Amino acid sequence: MRKLGLLTVLVALLAGCKTTPQTTAPASQAALPQTQTAAGAEQEKAPLAQPEAASSPQPNAEKTAPQPKQETLPEDANIQKNPAAAPTQENPPAPKALPQDTPVFEDEDLIDTKGRLLNPYAYLTPDASARAGAPWDGEQLKYGIYYTFIKAGTAYIRNRGVVDIDGRLAYLIQTTAFSATVIDAFFKVRDINQSWIDTQTFYSLGYGQSVREGSYKRDEWVNFAPQENRYYGQIQKKDPAPREINGELTSPVADFLSALYFVRAQKLEVGKDIVFDIVNREKQYPLIVKVLRKEKIKTPAGKFNCIVVEPQLRGEGIFVSKGKSLTVWLTDDEYRMPVKMKTEVFIGSVSATLLEYKRL
Fold first, then answer.
1. Do 226 and 213 meet the contact criterion of CB atoms below 8 Å apart?
2. Per-residue model confidence (pLDDT) at position 91
3. Could you read off the pLDDT of 187-216 as tens digits, one per residue?
4. Strand partners of residue 352
5. What residues are paired with 189 via a beta bridge?
6. How far, in Å, CA of 249 to CA of 152, rounded?
7. Residue 66: DSSP 8-state
8. What is the dihedral of CA 328, 334, 337, 338, to 10 degrees?
9. Which of the 8 DSSP states describes residue 71?
10. DSSP readout, 11-63?
11. What is the pTM of this model?
């Protein structure tokens, strides 16, 4: 039954729509930034940066990425580049903590990361005010997750800001998934997915997945070093110690979450495929995204003119079972905002529908 949390990764897969949305409920003026809805003033158009060719060099993630520890890192795990912050024997620094997280939506919960194996990059503090010119600058999205017609939970996709990874700027994109209260009693879901996306090429510098669905637990992180033709990371399930992950790369790649954003940065034309490489289940292969049609749909967040896309997954993916398809509705404007995602399952379907969005 791991369909609910995995739908958050579905949210992490692709994007496009022209908006005539309804006004969303305003957030608390004292605690939250201004809510951005299409019912308000005309939105500022963000220039669309063009990704570099697949052969673009990527940063050497290995040279700066510390070895991850669960929850609390050792003193030398993530020393800032400022020489004054370097540890000394006389006065060693306190253990590095995760950057403080705060809710974006009034009803948004935060997931406790205690006991989770995270990507070392998760300990870098993002600059939430940074803007690099992508369509998702300052974007925060809230989705209802539905099993057929039953609301099973809520998911959030957040651009948490920009971090510096070995001199390369990267967006930190984070998704979280929560099962509904009525489901928590017998199948509690609290999933976190993160991806660090190069602000120039839109390829991935690394990702992290932390799955908690019922009794099932899985933590996985991978960083990409295409200039060294390899990737590396760790995965931990039931074993007390994580298993090392490593493999060869033939080009820069996306992960499942960053794939959504890579597609959003492209020019989408009906009938023209988008092809780029992705790493999934420790394998690199081309992901083909079909641009199917244009369609107008209605969601709780409003009515949208959309471009409908469909990624062609090879074998079994993170969310889609073998032989099943994933359909994504993206706004047909400069934002390429994902407003709906849907896949068929053994009985019925699972979908994510946009409830509310903000541009901070």
1. no
2. 54
3. 999 999 999 999 999 999 999 999 999 999
4. 145, 341
5. 213
6. 38
7. P
8. 0
9. S
10. HTS---EEEEPPPPPPPPTTTSPPP--TTSSPPPPPP-PPPPPTT-----HHH
11. 0.75
Give the pair of three-digit tokens for residue 307.
């471009």
Q: Are 145 and 154 in contact (CB under 8 A)?
A: yes
Residue located via tokens 């990059």: 121
Residue located via tokens 């099943």 = 324
Q: Where are the alpha helices (DSSP H) in the chain?
A: 6-11, 61-64, 181-184, 258-264
Strands, E, within 120-214: which ranges? 139-147, 150-165, 168-179, 190-198, 204-213
Angle at 115 between CA 161 and CA 106, to 5 degrees: 45
- Report pLDDT digits (tens) over 236-266: 998 889 999 999 999 999 999 999 999 999 9
| pLDDT at residue 94 in the model | 59
Quote the percentage of the chain above a pLDDT of 70: 70
235's tokens: 């995965």
Dist. CA 158–CA 358, nearest whole Å? 10
DSSP string, 221-238: EEEEEGGGTEEEEEEESS
Burial (Cβ within 10 Å: 0-12, 13-18, ≥19) of residue 117 = buried
Using 50, 70 and 90 to split pLDDT, how confident is the model at 69?
A: very low
pLDDT digits (tens, 9 = 90+) for 277-330: 999 878 898 999 999 999 999 999 999 999 999 998 664 444 444 446 789 999
Count CA within 13 A, CB hemisphere, residue 236: 18
